[in-house]
Specification:
Number of strands: 6
CATH superfamily of the largest domain: LON domain-like
Number of helices: 5
Oligomer: single chain
Largest sheet: 6 strands, antiparallel
CATH topology of the largest domain: Archaeosine Trna-guanine Transglycosylase, Chain: A, domain 4
CATH architecture of the largest domain: Roll
Distance between the termini: 75 Å
CATH class of the largest domain: Mainly Beta
């Protein structure tokens, strides 16, 4: 069943369950957020990529308006609810400044998948070790783990849209695992190159080799 959803395109992807703070300053989005507040409406954030609105996005709820400024600008807190497929982009909505979209909401199957959590946790720790972020995650046995990892493993915007489009948790976790398997060897190679460069110009003491 299709629904007409007000849209707030941004150059990012928000996943279900994720919180997002926004500063709202454009007249069209001030109108949108005001209506969401007054009428208890939801709105959608589809990714904006290379001048176009992506085919998938996330329905958002307005959690709170933290600050309203004298000029009508607002600081707001929002939360992702569920993913949708954008069937038709409606640029001009009668009586509205903002655009909307006819959307179909996606199912979310297998919130906990059979993907071995050891594989995900090992790759995740190695990735952040190589990136020297100092970031750690202990819990890999939570529902919809992929939507949390999706913001923590360096996916591109296109990869995040792809992740959002998948209805099965097992498929989403497989995408993340494949991404880490692709990236980790490249980071290890860069680290080795860095070590070789740093070693140039220095005295070395090598062990005696028996030939």
């Amino acid at each position: 069943m299709k629904s007409l959803l007000p849209l707030f395109p941004l150059e990012l992807v928000v996943f279900p369950g994720e919180h997002l703070r926004l500063h709202v300053f454009e007249p069209r989005y001030k109108q949108l957020i005001t209506e969401c507040r007054d009428q208890k409406l939801a709105f959608g954030i589809p990714a904006y990529i290379h001048g176009g609105v992506a085919e998938y996005g996330t329905e958002m709820s307005l959690e709170e308006i933290s600050v309203t400024y004298e000029n009508g600008e607002m600081d707001i807190l929002t939360k992702g609810r569920r993913a949708f497929h954008l069937e038709r982009f409606v640029r001009d909505v009668p009586g509205k400044l903002y655009s909307a979209g006819e959307v179909t909401f996606l199912e979310n199957l297998e919130t906990c998948s059979p993907t071995p959590k050891d594989a995900l946790s090992q790759r995740f720790r190695r990735l952040h070790e190589l990136l020297e972020t100092g970031y750690e995650r202990d819990d890999f046995a939570i529902p919809n783990l992929s939507f949390q990892l999706g913001q923590e493993v360096g996916l591109t915007l296109y990869q995040k849209v792809k992740l959002l489009s998948l209805e099965r948790e097992s498929e989403r976790e497989a995408l993340i695992l494949q991404h880490m398997d692709d990236v980790i060897p490249k980071l290890e190679a860069v680290g080795e190159t860095k070590r070789r460069i740093q070693g140039n110009g220095h005295f070395h003491r090598f062990p005696t080799l028996e030939l």
